[in-house]
Design goal:
alpha/beta; disordered C terminus; about 600 residues; single chain
């Protein structure tokens, strides 16, 4: 296990570059330009040394001075241009990597069972897709190319110092071992807490999202509410953890920053000593000090960049956990049914071991073009059956077939094309009403979109919005009421015009004035389609071809309205409760 983790950690950078869309080679080009830039920055030092050397010798002339200054300016120009090219290329690669990672994570979630997605909180997912992946950009765009250059520069400076005087070169490394010791101690202390930091950050993000989503409830109950306390507590815990973490590494980190780049501690006194003995000229001493100062800058940068590189490593490994989520298995070949009869044979399903089995051997056939309703007490498994048909999860055992083809033998996208699914809680994107409806059929014309909206009784309220069909639905559709969102989702379903339609209490939030019209529109649209309706309002499904009563994950009975009224005590109780509630609501309405 440890060996696997170690190998995975070793491969993390290759994993990162695999999402660069073939631009990984460009990062190598960026590194080369960065190295040229940094090495070019040494040329002016050499020019200053040559001018100073001639000046001391008394043979400095104008022509040599002008040539040296021109060479220094040209080298500086090369430094600036190469640095610009390097950072331009590295930013291009970095943003390609970010795009590739985000698309891959989104694609992974799209292909994964919903249970795998629901296992992660919204804050954790948001933290990875938005924040953590974004955190990769600065290290990738700067640390990698510039870091490579700053690794090369001390080597070049050390070689140059060796050419000047070996003793000065060795003196430049005097404080390096001590600095390395403190840096390794810092990494060791920091490494123990990095994983805890990631978890603490994800936990705080989840609490923030929960707090914002529940702000209406929190406003009603004030700061004494449980949600506010959890929110404030998570922020305090995060603050305390980070402060303790920084305290544990503060001393070693400061000592590392003090000793690691302290090349001048050895170079200056040794150079002065050698000049005093006549073993080194003043101009050579000046060159040695300038080279040592270049090493100081690079060594300091390497320390900073090493922290950025470690942070990037942890981030990539964290993102990879999401990328490694098991996707729903897909077949190698496309299979599409010619008919749309749905068959469930001995279907068992378990969300997880703690919940236990939810469905216990469901056998059910939905004939092509039929209207089937699922009813039963809450928690009986109605929505689970519907979601298994749409393959949001795979069955634990048994099979689900459409037109004789097991849905596991169809590609996820192909199955999505033939199944429309509308739930009570419908999500709208923060884009125009028109585009939200057009999701049902991306190539639809504006007229087709508006026709679907009219069929779903949306047209009237949409035209009253500030910009009509171009009005934004707001974040998660919050600009619209629950009933309006539901009608938009139904319009989307109508526009899609799939041969299989699953409605999970699709008119639950619709006002009574529009419900009858909407039911008629749905009836007209779904005529000839395989229709499955999950209903709590039993009056909306009394004309179904077959009503299936689900109770505790088993089919208790099935038949027409009249048949169930005669023989099913559970259905009778549900019907009487429904009629009683409807009469009670109507009575209240009359009194009002």
């Amino acid at each position: 296990m440890n060996e696997e983790v170690t190998n995975e950690q070793k491969k993390w950078f290759g994993t990162l570059l695999s999402y660069a869309k073939g631009s990984g080679g460009k990062l190598g080009t960026s590194v080369i330009f960065s190295m040229i830039s940094l090495v070019s920055g040494l040329v002016p030092y050499y020019c200053v040394y040559r001018i100073l050397d001639r000046y001391i010798a008394g043979n400095l002339d104008r022509v040599f001075t002008q040539k040296s200054i021109l060479a220094a300016l040209c080298a500086y120009l090369v430094k600036v241009v190469c640095f610009g090219i390097s950072t331009g290329i590295s930013h291009y690669v970095a943003f390609n990597v970010l795009e590739g990672l985000r698309l891959k994570v989104a694609d992974t979630f799209l292909k994964a069972p919903l249970g795998e997605v629901y296992a992660h909180s919204i804050g954790e997912i948001k933290g990875v897709i938005i924040d953590k992946i974004e955190d990769i950009e600065p290290p990738l765009a700067h640390v990698v190319p510039e870091g490579a250059g700053h690794i090369l520069l001390p080597v070049v400076c050390f070689v140059a110092l060796t050419l000047v005087d070996v003793r000065v070169a060795l003196a430049s490394l005097l404080a390096l071992p001590l600095g390395l010791v403190f840096m390794m101690l810092t990494f060791k202390l920091s490494g123990k807490n990095m994983e805890k930091y990631q978890k603490a950050n994800a936990g705080m993000s989840s609490m923030i999202v929960e707090y914002v989503e529940g702000i209406e409830v929190i406003k009603a109950f004030g700061k004494t509410g449980v949600s506010y306390e959890k929110f404030a507590g998570s922020i305090r815990d995060y603050r305390d953890f980070v402060i303790e973490w920084l305290k544990s590494t503060w001393v070693t980190m400061k000592l590392a920053f003090a000793f690691m780049p302290a090349t001048l501690l050895g170079v200056v006194p040794v150079s002065i000593l050698l000049v005093g003995k006549g073993s080194m000229t003043i101009s050579q001493m000046a060159l040695s000090v300038m080279l040592a100062m270049s090493m100081v800058i690079s060594m300091a940068k390497i320390e900073v960049f090493s922290n950025g590189l470690r942070q990037m490593q942890y981030t990539v490994l964290e993102v990879k956990k999401f990328l490694d989520i098991n996707a729903l298995p897909e077949p190698g070949t496309d299979k599409l049914p010619d008919k749309f009869t749905i068959e469930l044979k001995d279907v068992h399903f378990t969300y997880d071991d703690q919940m236990g089995e939810v469905l216990h051997g469901i056998d059910l056939t939905l004939n092509e073009g039929s209207f089937t309703a699922l009813v039963g007490p809450s928690g009986g498994g109605k929505s689970t059956v519907a979601k298994l048909i749409a393959r949001f999860w795979d069955v634990s055992s048994g099979s689900i077939k459409i037109g004789g083809i097991d849905i596991k033998d169809m590609k996820v996208t192909a199955l999505a094309d033939i199944v429309s699914f509308v739930t009570q809680d419908n999500f709208l994107f923060s884009r125009s009403i028109k585009e939200n409806i057009r999701l049902g059929k991306p190539g639809a014309t504006d007229e087709e979109v508006m026709a679907a909206a009219r069929a779903a009784c949306c047209d009237e309220f949409i035209k009253k919005l500030p910009d009509g069909y171009d009005t934004s639905a707001g974040e998660a559709g919050k600009r619209l009421s629950g009933g309006e969102r539901q009608r938009i989702a139904i319009a989307r379903m109508m526009l899609k015009n799939a041969p299989i339609v699953i409605l999970d209490e699709a008119t639950a939030f619709t006002d009574p004035e529009n419900e009858t019209k909407l039911q008629e529109s749905i009836a007209n649209l779904t005529r000839g389609k395989t229709l499955l309706v999950i209903a709590h309002r039993l009056s909306t499904i009394k004309n179904a071809d077959r009503i299936v009563v689900l109770n505790d994950g088993r089919i208790e009975d099935m038949g027409t309205q009249d048949e169930l009224m005669q023989r099913s005590s559970l259905y009778n109780r549900m019907w009487q409760a429904h009629i009683g509630a409807r009469n009670w609501a109507a009575g209240n309405l009359k009194e009002a």
